[in-house]
Amino acid sequence: MHRFANPSQFMRVAEAMLPWMVALCIPLMGAGLYYGLWASPADYQQYDTVRIMYIHVPTAFLAQASYVVMALGSASFLIWKHPLGDLIARAAAPIGCVFAFICLVTGSLWGKPTWGTYWVWDARLTSMLILFFLFLGYLALANAFDDPARGDKPAAILAVVGIVNIPIIKFSVYFFNTLHQKSTLFGDLISGGEEAAMSALQQPEIAAAAAQQGSSLPPSMLLPLMLMLVAFSLFFLILLVLRLRGELATVRLRALRAGLRAG
Amino acid sequence: MNDFLAGFRAVLIRDLRLALRQSADLALVLGFFTIAASLFPFGVGPAPETLARIAPGVIWVLALLSVMLSLDRLFEQDLADGSLEQMVLTPRPLVLTVLAKALAHWITTGLPLIAITPVIGILLNFPTAGYSTLLIGLALGTPSLSLIGAVGAALTLGARRAGLLIALLVLPLYIPILIFGVTAVESVLTGFEARAHFLYLSAILAAAIPLAPLAAAAAVRHGVEG
Amino acid sequence: MFEGLSFSLEAGDALLLTGPNGSGKSSLLRLLAGLLTPLDGQICVNGTPVHEDIEGHRANTAYLGHLDPIKPTLTVLESARFWATMLGTLDRVDLALSMLNLSDLAAAPGRVLSSGQRRRLSLTRLLLSPADLWLLDEPTVGLDTRTVASVEQMVAEHRAKGGVVVLSTHIEFKLPGAKTLDLGDFTPAAFQAEAPV
Question: Do A172 and B176 touch (CB under 8 A)?
Fold first, then answer.
């Protein structure tokens, strides 16, 4: 563990793995898109809009995973003072922020044909929106100081505070949602048996979770979804390594400049 | 133990004194709360049933914003005149110093807000049956607002545009308190109990009392560097 | 900031920091107080690096910076009593105020104090502090000659009791037997200092 905490050693391993990840990611993504967009059936009620799921679900998963990576990196930076932890957190934050944004946009596009409106204060969309705000707060704080190095510790503390709060926020948002469910469009538009059938598809995370337990989602839809999940995860790792490279270069440049100025 | 309390009490009394002698700042927060609340009838129309429908939410959101707007008082001035770094340098545990400052902030912001809430309630035609729930909810929720706010205020020490930044950091973290506070009132008004909501608010407060000062103290320690 | 800087101080020692503006006198004092983290190198007290027990080090350090932590609305006595409580030496307040000639001003609020009076109120913190290590950043700015003399007296008494003083100043300050460190010689780069107390 501590051996990899040295940024240059970590980067050597990461750089060695990078071409393999790219080589794996491209065919997986291609296959996932092929099965998702052409080779899988359209939903009997949502028709082709269901295909948004193959982008929406992976981005939702990765936005959350990015925050976890960010918080773990920040915690290791605060506890063991590993500079790598801060670099990973700083590298992961904008990626997670963009994934959260894509998730919100695709969710909203998916909402128009199914809910009849672009935005519904549904529990999952609402928690993703708040996660997006948390990413924005982290990025704003990390870059709010005249000396960029000064933002590292406050941003790390914020990431850890955020991860402690996320379960509370999620719980409260679901609580809010169940109390207000009767008044949402969701309940008014759909009735009885149709609701059960649609909800499995409309609530993709549940659909994915149910699918993992071997129910609900047919294999023809499950396959592209899983392919896309793996491909997006690899894509995330590739972006992370590339951004880490940049962050590391920035830190080195700053150190060099400081040395020059002092000399 | 007694020794720890002496430091805690000293900071608390000092901050209370400072706030009371600059009571114009206090009035400012209450003024904001009242004026902002009186804008809503102009915005949504003066129909009593409309106002009654939105009153719980408006009062809670404005309480949130009022607390947030007064957060700069917590550490900013003490950082500027060197008091904060001297507090870091005393042998007193910084966590307790931060906790005392958050408590002083609540006494001089949260309590006055709760006290003036019935007046705002009248302006907004707040349903009579919900008053006690609203006030209990605010009493349980506003201390958490001060504690979480202290973390935000400490994190932004020395940052550019600190005031706006605090809003961005703190408001998402305030959402659970807002939800439980507002839904407590709504469930009482629709004939249910608010016990569960109060329990959740208390749980958040119970977690915030030890954790928020810990995070804020770490941020203050970093904030006085440089 | 500094390169190849190393020094050590024994009980009763004093170190006078000199050097041009921007040579890092204030930064060195803040480093010693634990208010800045060294990029490289370490500060040791009794052979133990201070970052291993930063709380203990801070408790044994009195730092006087450029700022006077005085509130416009708090009186001199309230201010002194607050810091005394924080430092655990409430019984010394009257003595400290009288030694710095502030007893008559005890009821005056901070906003009416002159800059010399504010500085004197800040200096009471040294007399209130139980710390062995005094770090004084230009302690005599804005003081009249009589007060400068009593500060010199305070420093001498502190050293006689086995305390250590590190001090930076631009004016004449009597510091018999003090070591002198010209920071102009050590800019730039890595920093190393040892201060066994």
Answer: yes
